[in-house]
Write a structure and sequence with these properties.
- It is a single chain.
- The protein is of the alpha+beta class.
- The protein is built from eight helices and 13 strands.
- The strands form four sheets. Strands 1-3-7-6-5 form a five-stranded antiparallel sheet.
- A hairpin with a 2-residue loop joins strand 9 and strand 10 (104-107).
Length: 347
């Protein structure tokens, strides 16, 4: 019994709510001349707080065959206004207008719309006139203004481009040549210097200090180029210790004797015998021949050294070429745009 009573109460409440909800459609004129417009106002009467949703209409959507919806907008949460038109003479039946209230669909009453035609008297031909001649369109500055200002910009860009081209022409390019020269191997350079020492007869010279200085400097430069460490800045003992990992002991012993004799002559005013000078020269030649390396490049690429002014000149030319290229692209694009715009306005 309680369950049945609950269902009965719910049904009574639902019927009461439905009785309080209604949809009303009102048209401002039931007649119109074809091509004119009429307005239909759809009003939903519902309890406060009810959720109301109206259908969405697209422009030129057919409400019924022959009647189009030009516009549909909501003037209030419960009011929708539709603008209708028709281009065919007829009496149209407008179906009920719907709205969704709290999830339930409610509909209004149907309406009628009569579209009237226009009477045309085709018997009196004098009232009709032939086609008009082609008329020139009036000059409108708003249409020509963009093309005018783009033309001014085009002239400015052309002037700037010409100026930069003159600058580029006056700024002569710097031509540099990369030379490939024959490169003497370290042992070849050392042997040339030793031959020069022999040619200057420094072995028999009384100035033993100069002789041993040139001889040891030749050996130091050879070691520096051959083994790749700064022998010119190292002492004799440091050079020997560094070479202990590279050469055989016999060659190093002879080289050690040469450096010791040279140090005594240069710093202790030691006087050597003539045969001792010859022996040290022979030891230097034997050390070079025993440690020389033939597997080294014999050619050297010599690149010119540019001054700061030359480097700035090269950078300036690169920038000028880049800017000129961009300006030429912009000029061509603007020229095409202006020509196309003039053709559209004139054609």
């Amino acid at each position: 019994m309680k369950k049945r009573l609950f269902i009965l109460i719910a049904m009574v409440q639902t019927l009461c709510c439905m009785a309080q909800t209604s949809v009303e459609a009102r048209i401002d004129s039931i007649e119109m001349v074809m091509g004119e417009q009429v307005h239909v106002t759809v009003t939903v009467h519902a309890p406060a707080g009810a959720r109301i949703d109206f259908p969405k209409y697209q422009r030129t959507q057919l409400l019924t065959p022959g009647v189009e919806v030009l516009e549909a907008h909501n003037e209030a949460p419960n009011i929708q206004v539709l603008t209708l038109t028709s281009f065919d003479e007829n009496l149209y039946y407008l179906p009920p207008f719907a709205a969704i209230v709290n999830g339930d669909t409610c509909k209004s009453q149907s309406l009628a719309l009569k579209v009237l035609g226009i009477d045309v008297d085709t018997t009196d031909y004098k009232k009709f006139y032939g086609p008009k001649d082609v008329q020139d369109n009036p000059f409108l500055w708003s249409e020509w203004a963009p093309l005018f200002w783009f033309s001014v910009l085009l002239l400015i860009l052309v002037a700037v481009t010409c100026y930069l081209i003159v600058r580029l022409r006056d700024n002569k390019p710097i031509i540099t040549y990369v030379r490939i020269v024959k490169k003497l191997l370290p042992h070849q350079k050392a042997m040339q210097e030793i031959e020069q020492i022999k040619a200057d007869k420094m072995v028999t010279s009384e100035n033993q200090k100069e002789y041993y200085t040139k001889l040891t400097d030749t050996i130091r430069r050879y070691i520096e180029e051959r083994y790749g460490f700064s022998a010119m800045e190292m002492t004799s003992s440091q050079i020997i210790e560094r070479l202990m990992q590279e050469g055989d002991q016999k060659s190093l012993d002879e080289l050690r004797g040469l450096f010791q004799t040279a140090d005594l002559v240069k710093f202790a005013k030691y006087s050597t015998m003539l045969n001792e000078n010859d022996m040290n020269l022979v030891n230097a030649v034997e050390f070079i021949n025993s440690t020389k390396s033939e597997n080294q490049p014999t050619e050297e690429v010599v690149r010119p050294q540019l001054s700061e002014a030359d480097q700035r000149s090269i950078k300036t030319r690169r920038w000028l070429k880049l800017v000129i290229t961009l300006l030429v692209v912009a000029i061509v694009a603007i020229l095409v745009y202006v020509a196309y715009g003039v053709w559209q306005l004139v054609a």
